[in-house]
Structures are given as C-alpha cells and as structure tokens.
Design goal:
The chain is of the alpha/beta class and 623 residues long. The chain is built from 18 helices and 14 strands. Its EC number is 3.5.1.98.
C-alpha cells in the first residue's frame, strides 16, 4: 500500500484516570495500546504529537454552557449536592458516575480529536489517530454510555470550517446516537453506523432513522443481529461504504473504531476478529481520502490493545510487516497464554446468516443511497482560522466586570433565542418529534402551594420543609423523565429530570416509589403512548427539537410545564409583584379570607407557623 503521512496523538497522562474499580471502561487501554505501538517500532514511522487539552470554551461549541460548567465542578464527594427536584435519595447512574479527574480526562480526549481534525483540515497530514477519542454517545446536554464530552462532534465541527462535506463511519457495536443526533438535520455530514440493534444500548439506530429536513437521507443505519462474523461484516460494509463515497463524495472521513464489536468483548455480542475489524480501516484507507481514526468502545482490554495496535499498522500500511508473536513489553503477561497479536473468533452463531436478514439490510441501505441528492454543496466563503477575539488578543480570562446578574441574563437570553429558533424551524414536524432536551427542566423551580387560608398555606410550608411536599411534587418531574437504557445492563431505567437538565444518568432507585399522579401530564401521556407503541411495533419514533419550556405572557418569563401549572393557580388568586426586591402575591379579592391578602411568596419556605424574620403582611405594612 502507498505511504501516507500519519499523525499519532497521545497523552502520557491518559492511563492515570479511572472510572472506578468495578467500572468496565478502562482508560488504561490507551496506555497499553501505546506500549504495543512503541515496541513494534511504529512511532518512528509517524509524527507523534501531544495535543493541547480542550478548554471549556471549545467544548461549548457543541455542548451547553451549563453542562460543561457542571462537568468542571462535579466530583465524587459532591454527588449529594447535585441540584435536582425532590428530596428522595438519588444515585448517579452506574454508567456515568462522577470520578476524580473527570473533566481533565474529557479535555484530554476532546483536545486530541480537535487537534487531529485541525491537522487534517490544514493539509499537514493524511491520517490522524486519537485512540483516546471516539466517545460517540455524549449528547449536547447529557452524558450517556460512558461518554461525557462528544469529541467526535467537536472534531467534525473543526473539519466543517474547511471541508464542505464530512463522512462519519462508526463500526462500534453500539449505535453512534450522539453523533447522529448532532448532525441529524444537515446534509454536510453523513453519518453511517454499523451496529447491533434490538434490546441493546442505546435502543436506537433503525433503518427508519434517516435524518430530517435537509439531512433527510444523510443518516444511514445498518443494524445487525448477534454473532456477526468477518464475512458478514465485509459483505455489507464494503458495498455500502463504496456507494456512500460515490454518492456523497466526502472531503474527509472520521472513522470510529470501537473495539467492542470484536469477539470476546465483555459488553459486545459480535464475533468479528481483529483482522475482520481492521479490514474496515484498510478499505477506508484505500480511497485516499484524508481521515481521522478515533477509539470508542472496547471492554476486554487486551483485545482492544491488540486491535488498535494492528489498525495503527494498517494506517501506516505496514500490517504485513507485523510479527504476530508479541515482543516483550511492560504488559506482556496480560496477553497469555498465546502471547500473540490476534483476536480469534468463538463458537457464537451468526444470526444474520441464519434468517437471511443480511441481504435485506444491505438492500434497504443501498435503496436509501439511491434517493439522496449526490454531493450536496455549500456556498464558497472565506473561513477565518481563528476567532475574532483571539485575533484581537482577547481571551475569556481577561474579561472582567461581569457579575452574577450579567451571567444569568446572558444565559437566559441564549436560552430564549435557542428556544424560539428551534420552534420556528421545526413547527411543521413538531407533532412527530420530541426533544431530547424536553426530559429536563430549563430553570429553577419556584413552585409553592397557594391555598385559600393562611393556616393551609403555613401547613404546606411545614410539609415542604419535612420533605413530603417535595415527595408529592417531584412526581411530575420524575414522570417527565423518559426512559434511558443502561449500556451495562441493556435495561430501561427512569432518568430524573433535574434542575439544569444536565442528565448524568440520575435515576430513582428501585426501592423508592412515588405516589401515582391523579391526572397524568402531557409528557406522562406521551411517555405512556411511546411505551405502548414500543410494545406493539417493537420500535419507537426518533424525537428531537421540541422543548417543554414556553414563554408565558402572563408571567413574563420562560416557564417549564410544571411551573406553568403552579403559575396558573397563583394567577387565579392574585398576581406577582416585587416590593424591595421581594416577590409578593397580591390578592385579587377572590378565593381568600380576610386578613390573608398580600402574603409574601417566600423563596425559602420555613417550617414554623409564624412568619419568619423579615416577613410581613402588606396590610400590616400599610397600617
């Protein structure tokens, strides 16, 4: 094979991080891979680089500011301080726990993919490798499937500054849902995922998911069943990718080489060997298009290291020179008893061949490619290589004079702008799709009981402070949280819709139950309808780009669903005013007894029957 310029990104600190002693995700696998690459003498044949770690500002090119800030602050000892509705004891989901050095690892992973993309876009290399990347499940405001920051999306965004079209290929055993969702409505990025589908994480990736709007047809999914072997993968991968490149004509490619599709993986269910997996790399390389290789899944560490080492050799074009007998290295004992650079198949049956579903999947994929517009183009324009602020010498650290109110107003303005923008662009199809962000609230809840008598209202304050109020009212927040599938158990769990919608897999433990709602909310009904649809058809609709938050003219601010309900109660009894910086509810003369007019709407609810310090009735103030 012809010689290609290869850039290899590696940070020596990557092996020092750990998700936890019992967690299947092991960042150490990148260190072991690097050790094998080194002892095989491949480092001298490529440019070895250490990327600058991604900053929080770079991460917010895709992820929300609140989510990135949350990742920067979260730590294992702060688990109980995570803001959420309700007072029930919650636990972070086992898939995405908080661990020491979480944000540093995310910046390391994302920094490698951003730097690799920039190097490809500049023409300085033909192939760039970042085995620390490939975290394809992370969403815009949510962690998922061991992934916190989606380095792939950040890398593709860098490529799009120069290239009109980018092709994303995913050979991980799990569907690349995070990347597909990020580019679901554009025709500049085509996503092509080869994955296991069924009762398997993340539960998405059917061939009915083709994209939306301008991106219709540019999301290609190729689902398989258990036991996929080398020949089966090759018979679908090569004709589909060949046709994709003919039709889409990408200027660059991102290849996610998740090794959990290799035989013997702890969480995988395919029977692909190391040679079968690396054949995908060789085939993509044969087109001569610049491409970036990233890691991804893979939970049998020694097989991951073997596979990625051999695929590094494939990128260099020296795979035939590699000795299958492993040379001595620091982790030599890990590879016993054979001590060879190989991953052998097992005796798993290939269900794709038994029921002849392989041909049908390939035919549907080829038919989809016949229907899309070939080689979509974009307008030519000069793309600045750096931001205006960076060009003028300003940095985010030099900006001063912003107080907390400035930050809150800026955050609120961005939210309202994005809300109006999404509602205007997707109104014609909003009935068919539901936003992934709608599972979570967008602002702090200020709901309170407003009753007809002072005694009843004071009693509700006691209930709030004792936790029973939170128990009752957290039910609506809990029911709005849609089900999420665990990557380790492949079971559906209820995700908690907590305060900022940051979604690191918070869920209700099985031994905690909430009282049933007297009347289900619209989101609850939608969730139940979705469950019934899943039971009947075995599949669900992809729902994006619709928020549960709306601008309320009466309140004069953005309210989420449960806040609108509480505001309507308060509106019937009175209206909000502000006196000396405090919120009050002035009586409209209906539904209240004498002497109860003008009770302050406390932000902090006390547990005493008497008014707290600083509280007063408007009538008393006037007298």
């Amino acid at each position: 094979m012809s010689q290609r310029r290869v850039s290899y990104y590696y940070d020596p600190d990557v092996g020092a991080y750990t998700y936890g002693p019992q967690h299947p995700m092991r960042p150490q696998r990148m260190k072991i891979t690097h050790e094998l690459v080194s002892v095989y003498g491949m480092l001298d044949k490529m440019t070895v680089l250490r990327a600058k770690r991604a900053t929080a500002e770079q991460m917010t090119r895709f992820h929300t500011d609140e989510y990135v800030d949350f990742l920067a602050r979260i730590a294992p000892e702060l688990t109980h301080d995570v803001p959420y509705h309700g007072s029930y004891p919650m636990a972070l989901h086992e898939d995405n726990p908080p661990w020491e050095g979480l944000f540093e690892f995310c910046s390391l992973s994302a920094g490698g993919s951003i730097a690799a993309s920039q190097r490809i876009a500049s023409g300085a290399t033909d192939i760039a490798i970042n085995w620390a990347g490939g975290l394809h499940h992370a969403k815009k405001r949510e962690a998922s499937g061991f992934c916190y920051i989606n380095d792939i999306v950040l890398g593709i965004l860098e490529m799009l500054r120069v290239f009109p079209r980018v092709l994303y290929i995913d050979i991980d055993c799990h569907h690349g849902d995070g990347v597909e969702e990020a580019f679901y409505t554009t025709n500049r990025v085509m996503t092509c995922s080869f994955h296991k589908f069924g009762e398997y994480f993340p539960g998405t990736g059917t061939q009915d998911d083709k994209g939306r709007g301008e991106g219709r047809g540019y999301a290609l999914n190729v689902p398989f069943k258990d036991g996929l072997g080398d020949d089966s993968l090759k018979s679908v991968f090569e004709p589909v990718i060949r046709r994709v490149i003919e039709v889409f004509q990408p200027c660059s490619i991102v290849l996610q080489c998740g090794a959990d599709s290799v035989a013997g993986d702890k969480l995988g269910c395919f029977n692909v060997t190391m040679n079968g997996h690396s054949n995908c790399v060789q085939f993509v390389r044969s087109f001569g298009i610049p491409f970036m290789m990233v890691g991804g899944g893979g939970y049998t560490v020694k097989n991951v290291a073997r596979t990625w080492t051999y695929e590094t050799a494939c990128a260099l074009g020296v795979e035939k020179e590699i000795d299958p007998v492993l040379p001595w290295n620091e982790y030599f004992e890990w590879f016993g008893p054979r001590y060879r650079l190989e991953v052998l198949p097992n005796n798993m049956e290939d269900l794709n061949v038994r029921d002849s579903s392989l041909n049908k999947v390939r035919e549907i994929a080829m038919q989809q490619l016949q229907e899309i517009t070939p080689a979509p183009s974009v307008a030519l324009q000069d793309v600045p290589k750096e931001s205006l602020g960076h060009h003028l010498g300003f940095s985010s650290h030099e900006i001063s004079g912003h107080d907390r109110l400035d930050e809150q107003l800026a955050q609120h303005s961005r939210f309202v702008y994005n809300l109006n923008d999404s509602s205007s662009t997707s109104s014609d199809e909003s009935s068919e799709y539901d936003s992934d962000a709608s599972e979570y609230s967008q602002s702090r809840s200020r709901s309170r009981h407003v009753n007809k008598s002072t005694r009843t209202k004071r009693a509700s304050r006691k209930a709030y402070s004792s936790g029973s109020y939170a128990q009752q009212n957290s039910h609506s927040a809990m029911t709005r949280g849609k089900k999420r599938m665990s990557i380790m158990t492949n079971q559906w769990v209820d995700a908690l819709a907590y305060e900022f919608g940051l979604g690191l897999g918070l869920h209700m433990p099985s031994n905690n139950t909430l009282p049933s709602a007297a009347s289900p909310t619209p989101s609850t009904r939608d969730s139940r309808e979705g469950e019934r649809e899943r039971e009947k058809t075995g599949k669900t609709k992809r729902r994006f780009f619709e928020s549960s938050a709306r601008w309320d003219e009466g309140a004069g601010r953005v309210l989420v669903e449960h806040e609108r309900g509480m505001y309507e109660i308060e509106r019937d009894l009175g209206w909000h005013t502000v006196v000396n910086g405090r919120r009050w509810i002035e009586s409209s003369g209906s539904g209240r007894g004498d002497g109860d007019e003008g009770r302050e709407g406390d932000e902090s609810i006390g547990g005493d029957d008497e008014l707290g310090e600083g509280e007063m009735d408007i009538d008393d103030e006037e007298s």
